[in-house]
Structures are given as C-alpha cells and as structure tokens.
Amino acid sequence: MARHVGLVVETSGTTGRPKRVVLPADAVLASAAASESALGGPAQWVLALPVHYIAGLNVLARSLCAETAPVAVDAGPFTAAGFRAAAARLAPELPHATALVPAQLATLLDDAEARAVLRGFQAVLVGGQATPATLLERAAEGSIRVVRSYGSSETSGGCVYDGRPIGATRVRVEDGEVQLAGPSLADGYLDDAALTAERFVVAEGVRWFRTADAGEWDGATLRVLGRRDDVIVSGGVKVALGRIEEALRAHPGFAQVVVVAVPDARWGERPVAVAAGAEADDAAALAAVAAGLGPAARPERVVRVAALPVLPSGKPDRVALRILASAAD
C-alpha cells in the first residue's frame, strides 16, 4: 500500500460485487475543505451515518478540519428521538450540521421537535440517492436548509452540491455519462487494475472518473438523470427506471419508491414499483406514468412494503427489492 493512502473504503455494491476504493489522505482532506467552504464555514456535526462508508467518514474528516468533535447518534434503528438526543449534546455556541440519506430526512420531517432542531442547523446534507422533490419542499416550508450532495466513494463523497461543483471539482458529460475530476479523486480500486483503468481515464492531461450516471451539464449546473445501467428494454422500447421513479414521486403515497426490473416472458423485462407505506391512488399514479413516459414505462404493478430495504449505507438494497418485486408476481 502506498504511503500516501489514507483510506480504503468498500462501496455498498447495490447491484454487484463490492469494490474497495483507495483514497489518498490528501483527497479526503480536499473534500472536507471544499465542503466546509461551500457550506459557509466550520461546524460541529451530528454523525448519523455508518463510518465504514464514505458519507460517515466524511463527517469525521469535516470534523477534523473544523477542529470540532462530532456527536454520534446512538447505534440501532434511526429514530427522530435518537437524533434529537445527539443534537442536544452539540455545543450551543457552534454552528451545527449533519449528513443524512433521504429516508432519515423523511423521519425527521415527520417529527415536530426534530424539525425545530434542523431549523437551527447551518446545513443538512442529503445524498446517497435521489431526494424526492416532496421532501425538499417540506424542508423548505420548515425553513430547513437542505443541500443535495452528489458524489461517490471514488470522489471522496459529495463533490457537487445542489448541482454545482464545489472546491476544484470539474464536471463534464461525455456520451451522456457524467464524469468528474479534481483533487478529491481516488487512486482507483484495490487489487483491480483493469477496473481502475476502465473507470478512471485521462483526457488532455486531466484524470476523470466515469460515474456511470447519465446527466446534463450546461457549464454551470449538473442535472443527474439516473444510472446509465438502469435503462431496460421492454417490448423493444428503452425504459429508464429512474425517470419512472421521478414521475411516481410527484404523487401522494410515493415519496419513498424504487423501481426495479423483473423478467417477463412476453416483454423481456417489465418495471415494478416498490413503495413504502399504505396504498394510495396507485392506479392513477401508474396511469400518469404511462401518459407522460409512454405505455412501456408503466410499472406492471406496485408492491407495498412497510419500509424499503436498505443497505448499511442507507442506499436502497436493489437485490432485496428485486426479490420482493418478483415474489409479488
């Protein structure tokens, strides 16, 4: 292992085998410094994410840079009461911040006391997956500053906030794929030179990370459209699962929804929506998807669950979701 390496982080592997990302210490510190500048200065952090994933590690790195002590939420299922208890231990004279995944933000917004706590925070970083517009609207209505974070383990975590690159991060879109460059990039993957060469490329002297995300870049703002590999072919028609999720989230009862593909004897593959919570007007939502995106994009069905299965990182467990979707057939 090279002496400059600070961390080796295992990615969550939502759709495949986990990968071990090699991060130089300088990359992690560059990420922390860029975040601090983008958020308006140093803060004391509530640690609500696992520290064996990059989002939790970043809270520790930002705390080191700010010379503040993070306060961890007690282990166990995430609750509003647990978050409030951690926040109560923050130093009152310091600015406060936290990093969450969307499901955690939803839990806190459902609790009046937690909303009051968040209202006093300098920033609430939310990442790990697309944040439903309804959640952002609820936070804004409560005067809570939510900052949407985009990045990955390979970029030392979030390097684009609310669509704009932070620090010295650079963005480009090549053949529809979002690519990122800057001082927070990883060295590559541990013991996997082939994958490193595939995902990290050099163009005109600049080293870029190929995210495998689809997006649009106008030179100032990045719009991430979803994973390039979430496009399926159903009955000969290309269907983007991320766009279906976005369309469904505009309807009541679909704030927490993931769309997965299941095999279909006639069409090859069909989208199925897995949504948390009680049944809403599912038929109307599915009809709206068909009207807006075409008949092939209409989910075959909606599978209702009490809570979406997630990985320790807070990201959706797509393997478990596909099993749920297939079992409900």
UniProtKB/TrEMBL annotation:
Alphabetized Gene3D superfamilies for the sequence: 3.30.300.30, N-terminal domain of ligase-like
**Domain AMP-dependent synthetase/ligase per the UniProt entry, residue ranges:** 11-187
Record field: transmembrane = none
Keywords from the UniProt entry: Ligase
Q: Name one GO molecular function term.
A: acid-thiol ligase activity
Provide the AMP-binding enzyme C-terminal domain boundaries. 244-315
Q: Does the keyword Ligase apply?
A: yes
Keyword Cell membrane: yes or no?
no
Q: Which PANTHER family match?
A: LONG-CHAIN-FATTY-ACID--COA LIGASE, NONRIBOSOMAL PEPTIDE SYNTHASE PES1 (EUROFUNG)-RELATED
Q: Tell me the protein's name.
A: O-succinylbenzoate--CoA ligase
Organism listed in the record: Protaetiibacter intestinalis
